[in-house]
């Protein structure tokens, strides 16, 4: 009737394309609302498809959709950590943090809801997905640092810093993204070195690492 | 018939005493099992009372019991932060950490389940209880530091350290409570100073605090 009006595109998509389109729409909704406030209807509307179609892809309903969206966000987040193993170490960490903070910036509310827990769609499976990302982050850091057999002090320090990064990015979202991402990034890199330096006082493995980081900065 | 056999004490308790007895039994169970694995039957058995009695006190069932137990644990945890405002600052922090680590030690599994989320009894209300404890911890620290109008850099640093303390105590439980609590405590105090020192480089309020802490250590 009104051919000029924008209509949702019903073009034929492959199963994978359709699934990915639905997940993108869902992630976009989760980025602005808490998971429990997103319905399958909302996703259908956002993607411009029928509700039965959303159900066909996610017969487990909202919970299944949420987990699939979370897994897709987790994959995307893990890509932030891909960084070539060349050049000085701290700038590599800075670049990974830049990508991470961009991700946080784009996924706002959904990211907070996810990390803060307390959502009605939170289960031990969703927690396992989030823990998986933390584990991958720790492995990346250790691998960049060239450590193969990390002792418990070093592992604890790295995991503590990762948690601190999460906490600070939640606070950052709460505080209307102040300070600027670049400043937050530099501060986090400095916290990384400071935390390792404390551990280095009682752990030879970490001490050797801190010395290497220091040499790295001088060259 | 066999008067020598130990029987549960059915003595008359006041409503408050009974409630507190049930919560103590529940907390004890939550300390060794994940919340979803504790039933009202278990609590009745542990407290040596009938199941209907447990239901009379917690008509909302497991969820209500869990929240009440959590709130009671949160109150107990907050007492760890009570520390007289006298003497050097860092030893005050050490003493509060000692009490905190004793609490973590005693509440083991329940404490992890609580902080890690992903439990089926996790809701926005339980999250709010946990966040409340974090907020109280931050207020205590700021008050001991003598800060009344904390800027965002200082607040972020304190909250980051609190999260780091939580993370490290979870890891500590995972790693069979290694290192010794005293060593973990000293390391956490040093991390506190190190994190503040990094922030001090760009924030005058934090810089003044770090100078005061430093003076404190010298005297």
Automatic annotation (TrEMBL), chains A, B:
Q: Which PROSITE patterns match?
A: HTH_TETR_2 (PS50977)
Q: Which residues bind DNA?
A: 39-58
Q: Supply one GO molecular-function term.
A: transcription cis-regulatory region binding
- Give coiled-coil spans as residue ranges: none
Protein name as catalogued:
TetR family transcriptional regulator
Every copy of the HTH tetR-type domain together lies at: 16-76
InterPro entries associated with the record: DesT_TetR_C, Homeodomain-like_sf, HTH-type_TetR-like_transc_reg, HTH_TetR
The answer, when asked if Thylakoid is one of the entry's keywords, is: no
Top-rank taxon: Bacteria
> Is DNA-binding included in the keywords of this UniProt record?
yes
Q: Which UniProt keywords apply?
A: DNA-binding, Transcription, Transcription regulation
């Amino acid at each position: 009737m009104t051919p000029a009006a924008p209509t949702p595109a019903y073009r034929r998509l492959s199963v994978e394309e359709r699934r990915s389109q639905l997940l993108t729409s869902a992630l976009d909704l989760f980025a602005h609302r808490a998971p429990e406030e997103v319905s399958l209807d909302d996703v259908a509307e956002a993607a411009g498809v029928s509700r039965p179609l959303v159900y066909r892809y996610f017969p487990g309903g909202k919970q299944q959709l949420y987990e699939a969206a979370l897994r897709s966000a987790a994959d995307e987040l893990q890509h932030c950590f891909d960084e070539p193993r060349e050049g000085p170490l701290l700038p590599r960490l800075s670049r990974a943090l830049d990508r991470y903070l961009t991700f946080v910036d784009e996924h706002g509310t959904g990211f907070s809801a996810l990390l803060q827990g307390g959502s009605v769609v939170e289960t031990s499976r969703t927690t396992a997905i989030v823990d998986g990302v933390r584990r991958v982050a720790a492995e990346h850091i250790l691998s960049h640092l060239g450590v193969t057999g990390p002792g418990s002090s070093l592992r604890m320090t790295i995991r503590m810093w990762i948690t601190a990064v999460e906490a600070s990015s939640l606070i950052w979202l709460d505080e209307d993204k102040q300070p600027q991402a670049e400043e937050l990034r530099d501060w986090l890199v400095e916290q990384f070195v400071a935390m390792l330096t404390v551990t280095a006082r009682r752990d030879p493995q970490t001490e050797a690492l801190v010395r290497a980081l220091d040499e790295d900065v001088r060259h």
